[in-house]
Amino acid sequence: TTFQDGGEEVEDGAVYNVTLKKVQIQQAANKGARWLGGEGDQLPPEHTVRQYETSKIRAIKAGTLEKLVENLLTAFGDADFSYISIFLATYRAFASPRAVLELLLDRFGNLETSSHGEVANLNSLESEMVLRAEIASVLRAWLDQCSEDFREPPDYMCLLKLLDYLKNNMPNSDMESRVQNLLKQFQNQEVEAVDGFCSTSSSDLVDGEELEISNPEEFSSFQDHVVAEQLTYMDVMLFRRVVPYHCLGSIWSQRDKKENKNLAPTVRATITQFNAVTKCVISTILGTRELKIQQRAKIIEKWIHIAHECRILKNFSSLRAIISALQSNSIYRLKTTWMCVSKDILLMYEELSDIFSDHDNYLTSRELLMKEATSKFANLDSSEKENQKKSQKRLQLQKNKGVMQGTVPYLGTFLTDLIMLDTALQDYVEGGLINFEKRRREFEVIAQIKLLQSSCNSYCLIPDQKFIQWFRRQRHLTEEESYKLSREAEAAADTNILSPKSQKSMVKRISTLFLGTDVFTPPKEQPLKSSPVGGSSGESTDSASVSSCEFNHSETEDVCVTPVSSPEDPLKKISGYSLSSCSPDSSMSTPSSGVSDKGSGSSKGSVFDAGSGLDSGSIISRDSGSVPSSAPRVLPVYNRQSEGSCIIRVSMDGLHASVYKSILITNQDRIPDVTQRALLKHNLEPDAVEDYELVQVISEDKELVFPRDANVFYGMNSHVNFDFILRKKA
């Protein structure tokens, strides 16, 4: 089979990509070979005659909502077999369920008045049969793949409309019975929040229980594999509930708006669980002042063993949460404690940390995740013989149980990809048509999430109520509390490692790539204090330290991430980063832009090369089973100018100085355009453009101030991070 690009076809309200598919349908012996009595499949190519058939594949590229809905009925005829799944997984980015259902049923599904093109030339009876089959096929797929779209308590308007349509047009059908059952199921189910087993509010505790700091003896009583299994059980329950469209960049990025405080609850619950694990790790290590150095080291060792058990269970969410907690500011600085951790366990810790290396857009964790997604058991490799023996022994115990394992991913990886896609690709193309090519790209990520959700059905874990109650009871330390306790435990440790202040650049370096384009960096004061955060277009919020998660009540769902570095050698993990030149000469990228000095206490500048942000190749690779298309253009990415565009990060000076927003700029954009978009991203009044100035951060003590009408793309310094500040004019 070969494919050939057939160009585009333009219709009223739609643009299609056309691909010509050439398929061999017959191979026979030529005349001379037949005379000798040979068979076609037994002869060399020069003695055979091949017959080919060429078919046309039409895949809609852009269109109005009406055309996109109509295409649900014609996609199979156009050989675009994945269209229905792609549409159902992504349509919430540009339409509501009610709008789609009304178009499908009222405009295209009316069996009396429909003039659907595909059946226009057939007689009336055949037309009704074909149209009824097409409508039923779409509705069946909708109910199979996205039944949550119809959960609209208390009225269930869409489900009732669908039921009424089926009673009139497909009475007594299996579809009608199915919709009735779904309606009863929704009505009978109690309205319950996705608590994720990790809320620490008093309402979730049994009467008489109170939040408490972990008792070391009680924590030590839980076996390592039991803790890992229970964390995996909680993660699996939450990840299976994730509604894939909640992860779309255009939806997740709107979560910080006041009217969207309940938006994407399934994603929020997963992130809340991640935070709860990181906070639990920190509280067990620092919560008891009376612990001796050796005792604290034993608790760290126990958490490393638990992380290793999570790896065996292919639970990358809790694995990353534990590693992030151990790399948090307050745990990382405990040099004497880390020196008491055995060498073998430190090597195990290093290997687990390397899984989440940010090299080449987290290529290691991405490849490992896809490798594990289709395997029955974990694929464990270790460079240290003793760890390898332990790993294989534990893995053999898992295999002996005869139960396959699923894979729980770190959801932030997919949120990052979807956010960057949403930032880089336009929602609409010329003529106001919905850009459906963008939705095809997004579906490639959504399909991976669905694959992993299916794999989670393989887990066979039983909840341990004793551990779950203990986990819920833990009182989580604030950033200020954990840092204070860390200082009390080892006051002199700061003299030999990076101080929290000097780690700011590294923190931002790591945070920029974890969950998106909003980055929460530590405030200037020490100990680190909490700050409310939020995100908009594209942009999950990462805190600089796992324990700095005491946000306001509406933002506790944001994932916390930390600097990745080894307690033995704080610079080991960053030794490969190239230092950006921050001298006054090198930072002057254009004569028309001025460089001004800032206070040395600023936390914005980073002397580490932040790399390329998100490698476009990792998120635009097409599924081998998808409809072929011409090679896509290279997507703009953070920290790299390509094809006249790039992505920059803009923060607001003052109240929102710690939150970055992702802005796509081109070589045509000037200061007023970029300023207006930045204000919109930060939910501020866009008419106030004249009141602000745009500044690029060059280093901790230098910044680049742009003139009012400067071209941002050509005026910016492309040799340092693409980090900007929007500041009110004096």
Describe the protein.
This protein is an alpha+beta fold and 730 residues long. The radius of gyration is 29 Å and the shape is globular. Strands 8-12-11-13-9-10 form a six-stranded mixed beta sheet, with helices on one face. Residues 113-122, 192-208 and 493-632 have low confidence and may be disordered. It has 27 helices and 13 strands. α3 (83-90) packs across α5. Among the domains are: 1-28 and 49-60, no CATH class; 64-110 and 128-190, Son of sevenless (SoS) protein Chain: S domain 1 (Son of sevenless (SoS) protein, Chain S, domain 1); 219-490, Ras guanine-nucleotide exchange factors catalytic domain (Son of Sevenless (SoS) protein, Chain S, domain 2); 645-728, Roll (Ubiquitin-like (UB roll)), CATH 3.10.20.
Blueprint (SSEs and pairs):
Layout: E1 2-11, E2 14-29, H1 31-35, E3 48-63, H2 65-74, H3 83-90, H4 97-107, H5 124-145, H6 157-169, H7 174-188, H8 216-221, H9 224-241, H10 249-252, H11 265-286, H12 293-312, H13 316-326, H14 329-332, H15 335-339, H16 343-354, H17 363-373, H18 385-400, H19 411-424, E4 428-429, E5 433-435, H20 436-455, H21 465-473, H22 479-489, H23 504-514, E6 518-519, E7 541-542, H24 584-587, E8 594-597, H25 617-620, E9 645-652, E10 660-666, H26 671-681, E11 692-699, E12 702-705, H27 712-715, E13 723-728
Domain Ras-associating: 644-730
GO cellular component, one term: plasma membrane
Domain N-terminal Ras-GEF: 56-187
How much β-strand is present in the residues?
5-15%
Rg calc: 29 Å
In angstroms, what separates the terminal alpha carbons? 66 Å
The largest sheet, given as strand count, sense and whether it forms a barrel, is: 6 strands, mixed
Mean pLDDT, rounded to whole units?
74
